Amino acid sequence: MKKTLFAALLLLWSVTGFAQDETEGPNRFLQNHNLLSRSPNAGIGIKGGVNFASVHGSDKDKFGATSSHTSFHAGVFAQFGISNFFSLQPELLYTRKGYERQDSVFRLDYLEVPVLAVFNISRNLSVHLGPQVGVMMSVKEEDKEVDLEPYNSFDYGLAAGLEGSLMERFRVGTRYVHGLGDLRKQDDSGSNIDERIKNGVIQVYVGISF
């Protein structure tokens, strides 16, 4: 997981560096003036990408040996510019998390709402940080539907990441979402439990704003 995040950050840095080089030239002053004359962080858009999901927590060993599960997320966002440096970005995402255990894949589908503070550290690179909440929509073991009763349907956590912009409209980014809500409230036998196992996911995405 750490190698995946490092590779995604390296790719993002390279792409945004290329975008900055492309804007150098005799029109640079005019471009800077146009960017600063309005907030660069305003509009709506769509986004989607890859999830590298896993579970974490002090009781993770109760699941036995687990590994990450690669899946997807997609949705819409709106960005409200407060200043040239700061904006707020709520999103509505359909995202698939999960894990792999003993040759089985467990897929956890959520409808999530992140609300992120966006800080511009350059014209083409920004830091995203904020809370998110989610509602579990379905659980599958391989292709078999699993009863939702043992699971906590409500999830919450913190998200942090980096995003680069290309030609003002296109975005590429990476984010880590650290789940804080416990995954299950009952064990396999239906008994109530206090089990510290939570979701975690690295997201790599592209988007376009309008």
From TrEMBL:
Superkingdom, natural source:
Bacteria
InterPro entries per the record?
Beta-barrel_OMP_2, OMP/PagP_B-barrel
Q: Which residues form the signal peptide?
A: 1-19
Q: Which positions, given as ranges, span the membrane? A: none
| A Pfam family annotated for this UniProt entry | OMP_b-brl_2
Q: Where is the Outer membrane protein beta-barrel domain?
A: 34-183
**Swiss-Prot/TrEMBL keywords:** Signal
Q: Under which name does UniProt file this protein?
A: Outer membrane protein beta-barrel domain-containing protein
